[in-house]
Amino acid sequence: MLKNLDPLLNADVLHALRLMGHGDDVVICDTNFPADTVAKQTTYGKLLKIDADAPTTARAILSLVPLDTFVEGAALRMEVVGAPHELLPIAKEVQAEIDRAEGKSWPMGTVERFAFYERAKKAYCVIQSSDRRFYGCFIFKMGVIAPDVKLGV
């Protein structure tokens, strides 16, 4: 057990997150997502899992991963087929975790289902939650952590 570290963050997940850099994407998906198939095509190349629902998984990931402030759409959700603007409870719950982690309102963008699959294949890694609710699929783009001191630029 480590201090100040969410216990859901297992060694494999910590390893992958530590290897990520600015601009890399991490996918959090539900149990219905073709996670293993997609994960094999990512940079990391293997599926990671966290045994928790999607919002709790997002909270654990966002406790370590800053969102990218240099791009639009640093937090994305899969659109509901036939109702792309519908915001399901699972998306609202993950939105609350994003806002909490970032300390401000940070609206999620949306990605059409099949475009989401293609984008997920280009991610650094895929982390499957144990959430069985539909459309529990999200992409977070890693930002940077500012230095402790001002650099002379």
Strand-and-helix sequence, N→C?
HEHEHEHEHEE
At the first level of CATH, what is the class? Alpha Beta
In percent terms, what proportion of residues is strand? 5-15%
Shape field = globular
Sheet/helix structural class: alpha/beta
Describe it.
The model has no long low-confidence stretch (mean pLDDT 95). The termini are far apart. With 153 residues, this protein is α/β, with parallel strands linked by helices. Helices cover 30% and strands 14% of the residues. It has a single domain (21-141), classed as RbsD-like fold (3-Layer(aba) Sandwich). Helix 3 (54-62) runs parallel beside helix 4 (89-102). The chain has helices at residues 11-19, 35-39, 54-62, 89-102, 113-121; strands at 25-29, 48-49, 75-78, 109-111, 125-128, 138-141. A six-stranded mixed sheet has the order 2-5-1-6-3-4.
Reconstruct the topology from this structure:
Layout: H1 11-19, E1 25-29, H2 35-39, E2 48-49, H3 54-62, E3 75-78, H4 89-102, E4 109-111, H5 113-121, E5 125-128, E6 138-141
Parallel strand pairs: 1-5, 2-5, 3-4
Antiparallel strand pairs: 1-6, 3-6
